[in-house]
Design brief:
Blueprint (H helix, E strand, L loop, with lengths): L4 H12 L4 E3 L6 E5 L3 H11 L8 E3 L6 H4 E2 L3 H10 L4 E7 L5 H4 L4 E5 L4 H10 L3 E2 L14 H7 L4 E2 L12 E4 L6 E4 L5 H8 L27 E4 L1 H4 L6 E6 L8 E4 L3 H16 L5 E5 L8 H11 L7
Parallel strand pairs: 1-8, 3-6, 5-9, 11-14, 12-13, 12-14
Antiparallel strand pairs: 1-2, 2-7, 3-7, 4-5, 5-6, 9-10
Length: about 325
């Protein structure tokens, strides 16, 4: 998507001044700031209302930057970066000296990825160092997948419009700071793809240390309550509710049907939940996705969105 030189210059100037901007990536839009500036990082936390111990992902402009922001890097990290970067894979490694503790929630591990979005990479390379870029929303809410979603949350923010996000859900987070490696958050790169590079991988049932983004029981949630139901149960429980279905809407029900392809479903998921959230329904009934590996990341997001608020922490 074309972008004026003036818009890019203003965004880079804001970053250099320690301010935040809205940055598109292939996953979701990020609230970006200088990853080496503790004060700029604190502004990200303040704008989002994010707990200070909840770590951020550092976004890199080149694979070689990994050696500036991490230490004792295992060979597996370079193998994975060669295969999946730029792309929606976040690697958890030992924190390098250039990373402020503000970015890691006080931990000695750091989460790194290289986004697969031409505009994000141009900003990173022209800025010359890493950016933190958590989702550009209020903490715990629906992630933004279009520039207008960011402007709704932060009207005063400089937002670079890179069009709709290609993947629509967040990156896969893989912890390489332990042996064996562990998937801490399913995401846009499926487990089986990672296993072709480094072998069999478990997924954490409950996220242990290190803490990672999106690891709380309730996250990615609209304000309207969500219930997850099998398709056959949707028609009997729809009083005052809207439905998010797979493939087609069941006859007589109102709501949105998303494609039955997991990649296409994921790309549209947050925008669809945002639309249903605004409709004033008593609840959103979401058809349970298939219990298949290709749907793992979607299942994770929907479980967290449907968790009751008293489980948030």
């Amino acid at each position: 998507m074309s972008l004026s030189a003036d818009a890019l210059s203003r965004a880079l100037a804001a970053l250099a001044a320690g301010e935040c901007i809205g940055l598109p990536t292939e996953t979701v839009y990020g609230l970006a700031a200088d990853a080496e500036n503790p004060e700029a990082i604190r502004k990200v936390f303040a704008r989002k209302g994010r707990p200070a111990d909840h770590p951020l992902i550092l976004h890199l402009g080149a694979v070689g930057w990994m050696e500036r922001y991490a230490r004792d890097i295992p060979a597996q990290a370079f193998d994975l970066a060669e295969r999946f970067w730029p792309g929606p894979l976040t690697l958890v490694l030992e924190r390098g000296a250039a990373v402020p503790l503000e970015a890691t929630g006080g931990q000695d591990t750091v989460a790194l990825r290289m986004p697969d979005h031409a505009l994000a990479l141009e900003v990173l390379r022209r800025f010359g160092r890493a950016l933190v870029a958590p989702s550009a929303n209020r903490f715990g809410g629906l992630s933004p997948t279009r520039a207008e979603h960011v402007r709704e949350a932060f009207p005063d923010l400089i937002v670079l419009d890179g069009g709709p996000c290609r993947h629509g859900i967040e990156s896969t987070i893989l912890d390489l700071s332990r042996e064996p490696p562990l998937i801490l958050r399913p995401g846009a790169i499926p487990r089986h793809a990672l296993e072709t590079v480094i072998g069999k991988l478990p997924i954490a049932a409950e996220v242990p240390r290190p803490r990672v983004p999106g690891g709380l029981p309730r996250h990615y949630a609209p304000e309207t309550p969500i219930r997850l139901l099998p398709r056959e149960a949707l028609s009997s429980t729809t009083g005052g509710s809207l439905v998010l279905a797979i493939g087609t809407l069941p006859e007589g029900l109102s709501g949105i049907a998303l494609p039955n392809d997991p990649s296409a479903y994921a790309q549209r998921l947050y925008a669809a939940l945002r639309e249903l959230d605004r409709a004033g329904a008593a609840s959103i009934l979401v058809e349970l996705p298939p219990n298949e590996p290709a749907w793992e990341a979607i299942q994770d997001r929907l479980r967290r969105a449907a968790a009751t608020p008293d489980r948030a922490s």
